[in-house]
Amino acid sequence: MAILLVPGFMADDTLWDDVVPGFACFGPVVHADLRHDTSVEAMARRVLETAPESFLLVGFSMGGYVARAIARQAPARVRALVLVATSTRGDTAALQKRKGAIGNAAPTIAFSGLSRTAVATSLHPKNRDNDALIERVRAMGTRLGGDVFRRQSLLDRPGDLERSGEIRCPTLVVAAAQDQLRSLAEAREMADAIPGATLAVIEDSGHMIPIEAPQRLVDVIVPWLAAHADA
C-alpha cells in the first residue's frame, strides 16, 4: 500500500512534513506534482501517470479538487479518500475577478512570494503574528515561483457537487472550525453529498491544518484510514 498526498495552492511537499511520520504505517508516501497543468482534470491525469497502482489519497484545499478528480478518473485505484480543508463549490465572482486581474498582468512581473497578509488570513487568529508559520507558508510559494503562481492562480475550479455521487470509495472530510477560507457549511455540504462520507472537525485551527495542527490531523486521519482502507 502507499499514501498519495496532494498539496494545495502554492504549497509544496513540505506542507506535509509534520504529518508524514504519522502516515508511515500505510507504506511509502508519494507526493503529487501540481506545478505544470492549467486544469484540475489535467493535474489529476498527470498525478495518475506516476502514482502507485493502488493507494490511499489525501488532498488539501485546491488539492481536494484534484483528489476528487483522481477518484473519478481511476476509481479502482483509490482505496480511501481524505479531503482536508476543501470544498465542492466553484469560483466566486470575486475570485473570478481576481483571476482576471492576474491574467491581464504582465507575466514578466517579478514574483516575490505570497504576501504576509494573504498568508495570515489563512491562519487561525492566534497564529496571525506567528512569524515562523507565516514564513514557512511563504517559503513554499517562493520555491514554486512565479510561473506556478500564475498557472495555479488562473486555474478554473468548477464546482463538482453534482458529481459527488461518482465517488465510491470510503471518504473522510476534515474541516477546521476556524477556517476563514473554507467554511464548515462547505465541508458539511460535501460530506452530505459523497455517499457514506464521514465529517471530522478540528477545533482551534485555521485553514492550514497540516501546518497549524498536524498532530490533531494525524490523530483524526490515521485511525479512520486504518478502519476504512480495506473497506
UniProtKB/TrEMBL annotation:
Domain AB hydrolase-1, first and last residues per copy: 3-219
Keyword Hydrolase: yes
Keyword Hydrolase (UniProt): yes
Domain of life where this protein originates: Bacteria
Pfam families, sorted: Abhydrolase_6 (PF12697)
An example molecular function term from Gene Ontology annotations: hydrolase activity
Descriptive protein name: Alpha/beta hydrolase
Species per Swiss-Prot/TrEMBL record: Telluria antibiotica
Species lineage: Bacteria, Pseudomonadati, Pseudomonadota, Betaproteobacteria, Burkholderiales
